[in-house]
Design the sequence.
């Protein structure tokens, strides 16, 4: 559910992949090979592709409010496609997501930014949620394994801080003014999400990750703050 936009994707070809190894600790790399599978038409994961990043946590899904809106990668979000939103995995990365309770796995593409809820790590499209047994319960514990990425996972990138949701737009405007006076080189956008919530997006000088992390540490607000990769 990216407030950098909505999500994007195309209808996928259904594929099955063997269950991944048991869930490991959060945000560690791995080297499990995967057979050749098609994430979406024309996007093929080659034989022997290794897992370059893994993360375990709670998944949710997003649908009608964001359907047909532009995603963070510039595509139009199709809730019937096999896509997902993640805050920091490079856009257009190919990942295998496994429901840790049911063992069901699917290959999908990261096209959007979100979820902007503290205890969740990925927002699935409606169809991906249905295939991964997340749709009816709303949330589930999953393991994310990135198999392909167009950019390095551990360096570079363009980073920002996303702050919200605010109870009203005046609170957002007050914090925006405060941050503008304190961080003269920061670019701050105040906007309303598709579900009517007010947010701030703060881009630090040179979109540097370290500076974005420092801004989070130095900023005091009741609103939630998230480190987000833009590319």
Sequence:
């Amino acid at each position: 559910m990216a407030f950098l936009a909505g999500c994007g994707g195309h209808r996928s070809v259904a594929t099955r992949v063997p269950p991944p190894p048991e869930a490991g600790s959060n945000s560690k790399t791995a080297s499990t090979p995967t057979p050749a599978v098609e994430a979406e038409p024309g996007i093929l994961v080659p034989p022997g592709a290794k897992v370059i990043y893994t993360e375990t946590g709670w998944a949710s899904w997003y649908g009608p409010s964001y359907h047909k809106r532009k995603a963070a990668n510039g595509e139009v979000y199709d809730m019937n496609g096999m896509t997902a939103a993640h805050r920091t995995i490079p856009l257009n990365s190919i990942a295998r997501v496994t429901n840790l309770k049911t063992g069901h796995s699917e290959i999908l593409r990261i096209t959007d930014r979100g979820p902007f809820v503290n205890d969740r790590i990925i927002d699935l499209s409606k169809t991906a949620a249905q295939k991964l047994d997340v749709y009816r319960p709303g949330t589930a514990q999953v393991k994310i394994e990135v198999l392909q990425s167009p950019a390095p996972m551990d360096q570079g990138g363009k980073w920002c801080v996303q702050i919200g949701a605010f109870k009203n737009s005046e609170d957002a405007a007050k914090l925006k003014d405060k941050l503008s006076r304190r961080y003269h080189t920061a670019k701050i956008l105040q906007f309303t999400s598709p579900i009517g919530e007010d947010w701030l997006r703060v881009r630090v000088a040179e979109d540097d990750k370290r500076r974005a992390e420092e801004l989070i540490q130095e900023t005091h607000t009741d609103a939630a703050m998230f480190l987000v990769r833009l590319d």
Q: What stands out?
A: The chain has two domains: 33-148, 159-229. Residues 4-30 have pLDDT under 50 and may be disordered. DSSP finds three helices and 14 strands in the chain. The two ends are 16 Å apart (CA to CA).
